[in-house]
Amino acid sequence: MSYRVLVVLDPQFSRSLVRDSYGCVDWVTYDYPAHLAADLLDSPTLRGFVFQGKSGHLVTKRTGFVPVRLHEKVWMLKTGGVSGLIPAIDKLLFWLRIRHRGTAVEFMKFEHFRDILILPNPDLRQTFEQYHSIWGGIDLMVDPRQADGWDSPALLQQYLSGLQMLESIVPVWPPSKEMLRASLKFNVIIDVDQIASRTVNSPRPLTTLLSRNDVSQSFEGCILKREGSDCNRHVLLPGKVDPLNLPPDRGRFRWLKQSYVPTLRKLGEWRIILVDCQPLWMVHTAPGNGEGEWVFLHRDAGLSLAEMRWVLQLTSRHDLIGIVKPGDRPSLRLREPYVFDDIMDPVGGTLFERRQADQELESFATTALNQLISLEEESLGAPSSLRLMVRLDLGVMHGPDGRLGYFINEVERGMGIGLFSTGNPRWTLRLADEFGCVFSRWMNETCLAMKRLIEPLT
Predict the structure, then answer these.
(1) Which strands, in side-by-side order, build the sheet including 269-275?
(2) Which of 52, 103, 190, 344, by CA, is between 20 and 30 Å from 305?
(3) Cβ atoms of 286 and 270 closer than 8 Å
(4) Is the separation of the CB atoms in 314 and 337 below 8 Å?
């Protein structure tokens, strides 16, 4: 079966200069044969998404090859003399891996896509019916007005109306209705709170909508975060909140008040990429030694909750722990004296203990994800994009009984998911092998549900 996909570049992923891409976790460098590299670098459509790269410890210069610096959300297909570079939720090597499947990929600048959708009477069927799927557009999980090209709120509404009209003609991923609902993070938090109390029996930070009428409210031990934002762009930590000068909401995006979880700053988060509802890889991000420094480590093995709690006890971090009860000590096989780094990169432990710890974390993630999908699909009346791919950011915190438990801190979906590949393209290859089959299956099932015939390309 052959598929034709149109991928629309999101201008928010581009950079003006190559130096702006270094230090970004969502850019990678990969070497291509010189003639392919020339196609990428010379394409005006791809300007800002790809640059001449340089060799390094991850990319060694090979004769006849050119290192190319590009965004993770950039794909390429080279078939029959046609070259295309497409930013999307999958990665560059995705298309190189699956081209033998016959997928035809075309790409379009977002500005062109937007201008078509906002026409007074656009002939969307004639323009887009040839495609089995359209991927992309602008990332609706964040406030679209922070990007260039939106002259008025009315223009954004025209775009959304055109996009939803398009979704009735051809499958569009990710679905706009789902993304608009999820961009209001309080909706997702309500679902996750329900799952924590009814299904996985885990602790949760208390989250409420920020009140501007309660002059007696206290912000001690609380943070503020805003909907329609990511990458900690709109987060106020404890001590940074001025009760007399609270930040204003931005349109439909509201500020939330949430109890502060110290372990997020001191232990970091486990960021799990799941494809087809199964964990693909996991990255542990934690504070480094320098101010504002963070360390990323792909998890090969981890500690169980019981082990983490015991290590925290031994490191005398009394602000993080409860009272250790007799018999709580797990059968640790770690180095002694125990150090904080053992939580991120444990040394020792039997194979059974390390697998048991991984199973504990992955079981929590998959159980919670399946419950979240059920709740969202019941609310939306349509399949959730989370079935295809999602990144769950998990933290640990203590519940009322003093025991440590996992909790979901963030649910990342759609085209803006950061993969934390830390510049290494091998994670792109892993994603490509898994997601390619899932996306093809989704296209087939969605086209059949819409009674759209999928015909071989000619």
Answers:
(1) 294-298, 278-287, 269-275, 389-398, 404-412
(2) 190
(3) no
(4) yes
Q: Using an 8 Å Cβ cutoff, are 338 and 323 in contact?
A: no
Q: Collapsing DSSP states into helix, strand and coil, what is residue 268?
A: coil
What is the separation of C-alpha 94 from the centre of its chain, rounded to a whole number of angstroms?
17
**Close Cβ partners of 190 (under 8 Å, ≥ 6 residues apart):** none
Q: What is the pLDDT along the chain (458 residues), one digit of tens a residue?
A: 578 888 887 777 666 655 555 555 556 666 666 766 776 677 776 677 777 666 554 445 666 665 665 544 443 333 333 323 222 223 444 544 554 456 777 878 888 999 999 998 889 999 999 999 998 888 899 887 766 666 678 888 999 999 999 999 999 999 999 999 999 999 999 999 999 999 999 999 999 999 888 877 888 999 999 999 876 678 888 888 888 888 888 888 999 999 999 888 878 899 999 999 999 989 888 876 666 667 777 787 888 998 888 776 765 444 433 434 444 445 444 445 455 566 777 777 788 888 899 999 999 999 999 999 999 999 999 999 999 999 999 999 999 888 899 999 999 998 878 777 655 667 767 777 788 789 889 988 998 888 876 564 54
Rounded distance between C-alpha atoms, residue 161 and residue 147, angstroms: 19
* Neighbouring-strand partners of residue 77: 84
Question: Measuring CA to CA, which residue among 280, 223, 298, 264 is closest to residue 410?
Answer: 264
Please give the model's pTM, rounded to 2 decimal places.
0.83
d(CA 442, CA 139): 20
DSSP string, 354-388: HHHHHHHHHHHHHHHHHHHHHHHHHHHSS--GGGT
Q: What's the CA gap between 415 and 140, in Å, rounded?
A: 9
CB proximity list for 404: less than 8 A, separation 6 or greater: 305, 306, 308, 309, 312, 396, 397, 398
Q: Helices in 30-83 by DSSP H: which ranges?
A: 34-42
What is the Cα–Cα distance from 417 to 13, expressed in whole angstroms? 11
